[in-house]
């Protein structure tokens, strides 16, 4: 119930994205509009060769005074793929604004995709997994590389304990760069936790390691999540190595210190290990976790 209430609260707080066209007639607005470019294609060979001109559609958003982000628009009239950055001079010399196309096709298509994803997220948070799967599937028909839809499907499969399909989504995500960018950070954190809870522990470790490679080496929560996956795998050495790094970054990370305390208790208590179904902990790992607790102010012996 709490998860459902939190999900609905997030929806209420989130601002509705602006899919309109702006900045064409008002220099005070940041530009956001569909543009087109022309490209010449040669068809055939020799004397039968003909030239054919095609129009390519782009979704353009102004970044700052001198640079613009452009994304190609697919046949379903939604921007897809990675954005490129061009200058003002490049935009003016090589592209033409398409205001009517933006207002009549692209804006409405982007809004419909957004609403489809919103319904998918809402259904998933409410536990209506079949409905959520249908919505995410519909979104992927429109944009087959849509990160939010792919994450959503992965979470649906993980919630169902469908390990085969969850692993397939994981493989798709680790081959992409976009899921690990800052704008999707909350999603990849949630999916990594879902992989661990679905007992896809090797996948969870690989997934978080990919995230570290993309987002940098200073994320304490990522290192904690890797440590937690190694804890579930009963790999004490790797667990404590990741935990050490997490606490180097943030010595007050309570989740990491709490896990250290649990491992310390397991090291000293055979009955507790049996209760948690954990294997023995080596003297070296026991000493290491005790040292971590002492270093970061959780030394139970003091």
What is this structure, in a nutshell?
This protein is α+β, with helices and mostly antiparallel strands.
Task: Walk me through the structure.
The chain has helices spanning 2-13, 88-94, 99-125, 129-142, 147-159, 163-174, 185-197, 201-215, 220-232, 236-249, 254-268, 270-276, 283-295, and strands at 32-43, 50-62, 67-73, 79-87, 96-97. It has 302 residues and is of the alpha+beta class. The protein has a domain at 217-302: Serine Threonine Protein Phosphatase 5, Tetratricopeptide repeat (Alpha Horseshoe). It has a five-stranded antiparallel beta sheet with strand order 4-3-2-1-5. The longest helix has 27 residues, at 99-125. The radius of gyration is 25 Å and the shape is elongated. The protein starts with a helix and ends in a 7-residue tail after the last helix.
Notable traits:
302 residues, alpha+beta, Serine Threonine Protein Phosphatase 5, Tetratricopeptide repeat, 5-stranded antiparallel beta sheet, 13 helices, 14% strand, disordered N terminus
List the helices and strands and how they pair.
Elements: H1 2-13, E1 32-43, E2 50-62, E3 67-73, E4 79-87, H2 88-94, E5 96-97, H3 99-125, H4 129-142, H5 147-159, H6 163-174, H7 185-197, H8 201-215, H9 220-232, H10 236-249, H11 254-268, H12 270-276, H13 283-295
Antiparallel strand pairs: 1-2, 1-5, 2-3, 3-4
Helix pairs in contact: 1-3, 3-4, 3-5, 4-5, 5-6, 5-7, 6-8, 7-8, 7-9, 8-9, 9-10, 10-13, 11-12, 11-13
Spatial extent as radius of gyration: 25 Å
SSE pattern: HEEEEHEHHHHHHHHHHH
Helix content: 55-70%
What is the tally of helical segments?
13
- The rough form would be described as elongated
Give the rounded overall mean pLDDT. Answer: 88
CATH topology of the domain at 217-302: Serine Threonine Protein Phosphatase 5, Tetratricopeptide repeat
What is the CA–CA distance across the termini? 41 Å
Estimated share of beta-strand residues: 5-15%
Widest sheet: strand ordering: 4-3-2-1-5
Classify the secondary structure makeup into a structural class: alpha+beta
Write the CATH architecture name of the domain at 217-302.
Alpha Horseshoe
Q: What's the CATH first level of the domain at 217-302? A: Mainly Alpha
* SS elements, strand count: 5
Low-confidence regions: 1-6, 8-13
Taking the sheet with the most strands, its summary is: 5 strands, antiparallel
């Amino acid at each position: 119930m709490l998860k459902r209430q939190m999900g609905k609260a997030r929806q209420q707080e989130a601002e509705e994205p602006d899919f309109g066209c702006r900045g064409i007639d008002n220099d005070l607005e940041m530009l956001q509009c569909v543009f087109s470019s022309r490209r010449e294609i040669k068809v055939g060979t020799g004397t039968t060769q003909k030239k054919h001109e095609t129009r390519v559609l782009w979704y353009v958003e102004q970044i700052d005074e001198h640079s613009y982000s452009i994304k190609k628009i697919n046949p379903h009239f939604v921007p897809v793929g990675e954005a490129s950055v061009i200058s003002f001079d490049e935009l003016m010399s090589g592209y033409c604004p398409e205001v009517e196309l933006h207002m009549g096709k692209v804006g409405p298509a982007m809004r419909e995709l957004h609403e489809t994803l919103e319904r998918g997220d809402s259904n998933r948070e409410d536990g209506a997994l079949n409905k959520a799967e249908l919505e995410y599937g519909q979104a992927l028909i429109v944009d087959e590389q849509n990160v939010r839809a792919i994450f959503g499907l992965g979470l649906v499969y993980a919630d169902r304990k469908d390990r085969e399909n969850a692993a397939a989504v994981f493989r798709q995500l680790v081959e992409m760069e976009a899921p690990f960018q800052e704008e999707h950070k909350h999603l990849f954190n949630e999916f990594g936790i879902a992989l661990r809870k679905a007992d896809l522990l090797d996948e969870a470790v690989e997934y978080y390691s990919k995230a570290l490679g993309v987002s940098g080496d200073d994320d304490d929560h990522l290192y904690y999540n890797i440590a937690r996956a190694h804890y579930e795998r009963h790999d004490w050495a790797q667990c404590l190595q990741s935990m050490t790094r997490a606490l180097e970054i943030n010595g007050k990370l309570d989740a990491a210190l709490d896990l250290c305390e649990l491992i310390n208790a397991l090291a000293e208590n055979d009955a507790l290990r049996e209760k948690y179904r954990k294997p023995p902990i080596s003297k070296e790992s026991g000493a290491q976790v005790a040292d971590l607790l002492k270093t970061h102010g959780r030394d139970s012996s003091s």
